Amino acid sequence: SRFVTDPEIRKILKDTDGLGTEATRAGIIELLFKRSFLIRQGKTIVATDVGKGLINSLPHSATTPDMTALWENNLDSMSRKETQYQAFMQPLISKLDELITQAGSVLPTALQGVKSPAPFKKKSYARKGSKGQSTAKKPARKPRAVKS
After folding, report:
1. Are 52 and 61 in contact (CB under 8 A)?
2. CA gyration radius for the chain?
3. Is pLDDT above 90 for 33?
4. How far apart are CA 54 and CA 103, in angstroms?
5. Contacts 24+ apart (CB under 8 A), 18-21
6. What is the CB neighbour count within 10 angstroms for residue 51?
7. Residues 18, 22, 23, 26, CA torsion sign
8. Is the distance from CB of 3 to CB of 67 less than 8 angstroms?
9. How far is residue 100's CA from residue 89's CA, in Å, rounded to a whole number?
C-alpha cells in the first residue's frame, strides 16, 4: 500500500492481503527474469535496461499498484455478487486497449540505445497423435533378459 497514490485505494489494500497471491506474484517475477526484464545482483533483484525501458514506456497509471488494486476490489465485489461481470470487463478492455496503444507509441523511444537481451525462446513440445501419443521418435529399447 505504500506505493499507492490514491488514499481510498491505500485503505482498500491495508484492509486486504495486498495484491494477488504469493503464488501469482512468484510466477510473474519468474517470467520477468525469463524475459530479461529483471536480473539478480547478489541478494538484490534489479531491473535491466530493457525492463527500465518498458517501465518508462508505460503510462503512469500502469506503473503504480492503484489500477490493480481497483481491479482486485471489483473482482471481490463480483464474488459477492455486488457487481456484474460485464460492468467490470467492458471498462477493463477499453482501458487495456488504451494502455497498449499508449505504450506502443512510446516504447521505441523508451528503448532507444538499449542493448537487446538474448531472444526469448519458447518451449517446444512434441506433437500428439490421434490417441494422445507423442509423434516424436522414441529411442529403441534394449531387449530385456527373459528368465526361464
Report:
1. no
2. 23
3. yes
4. 8
5. 19/65, 19/68, 19/69, 19/72, 20/68, 20/72
6. 18
7. positive
8. no
9. 16
pTM, full prediction: 0.56
Write the pLDDT tens digit of every residue in 38-53: 999 999 999 998 888 8
Determine the Cα–Cα distance for residues 21 and 92; give it in Å rounded to an integer.
Answer: 21
Question: What amino acid occupies position 100?
Answer: I
* Domain 7-110 bears CATH identifier 3.40.80.10: no
For residue 28, give the H/E element and its range.
helix 22-34
First to last CA, the chain: 73
Report the C-alpha gap between 79 and 9 in whole angstroms: 19
Which residues 6+ apart lie within 8 Å of 114 measured at CB? Answer: 49, 50, 53
Question: pLDDT digit string (tens) for 59-76?
Answer: 888 887 888 888 888 888
How far apart CA 69 and CA 135 sit, in angstroms, is 45
Residue 130, CB-side half-sphere exposure with 13 Å CA sphere: 0
**At 4, is the pLDDT very low, low, confident or very high (cuts 50, 70, 90)?**
confident
58, 27, 55, 33: which is closest to 45 by C-alpha?
A: 33
